[in-house]
Amino acid sequence: QVQLVESGGGLVQPGGSLRLSCAASENIFSINVMGWYRQAPGKQRELVAIIISGERINYAGSVKGRFTMSRDNAKNTVLLQMNSLKPEDTAVYYCYARVSKDYWGQGTQVTVSS
Fold first, then answer.
1. Residue-wise burial string across 29-53, b where 16 or more C-beta atoms lie within 10 A, e elsewhere
2. Are 86 and 76 in contact (CB under 8 A)?
3. Beta-bridge partners for 57
4. 54-77: per-residue pLDDT in tens?
5. In the prediction, which pLDDT does 73 show?
6. Which residues of the chain carry a pLDDT beneath 50?
7. Which residues does 77 contact at the CB level (< 8 Å), separation at least 6?
8. How far apart are CA 43 and CA 53, in angstroms?
9. β-pairing, 10-12 with 108-112?
10. Contact between residue 49 and residue 36 where contact means Cβ atoms under 8 Å apart
C-alpha cells in the first residue's frame, strides 16, 4: 500500500509560479511509474507529467516548457515546478504512482486568477 500526500497548492496570479510536492510512503526507487494529473471542474482528469522506470519525463503539450517534474530521492518526494501559470491551469492536481496497481493522492487545489 503506497500513500501519497500532496502539498503546495494555492491561489496565484496569472504568470506566477507554484511548486507542488508529493511525499510517498515508500522508497520512490521502488515505484515504477510516478506522475502528476489534474482535473478541472467539469472536465476529465488529464495527464500533466509522468516518468516511467526512471526514464525520460513526458509532459502534456499544454504544460511543456512551463512545468518541470523532478524527484528528491532522499526525501521520497516528487516535485512539480509550475511557472508562467495560466487561468486554464486551474484544477485539482493529483499525484499518481503505480506499484502493481494505481495509487492516487488526495489532490491539491491550484487556482490561477487575478
1. eebeebbbbbeeeeeeeeebbbbee
2. no
3. 51
4. 778 999 999 999 999 998 888 999
5. 85
6. none
7. 21, 22, 23, 24, 28, 71
8. 29
9. parallel
10. yes
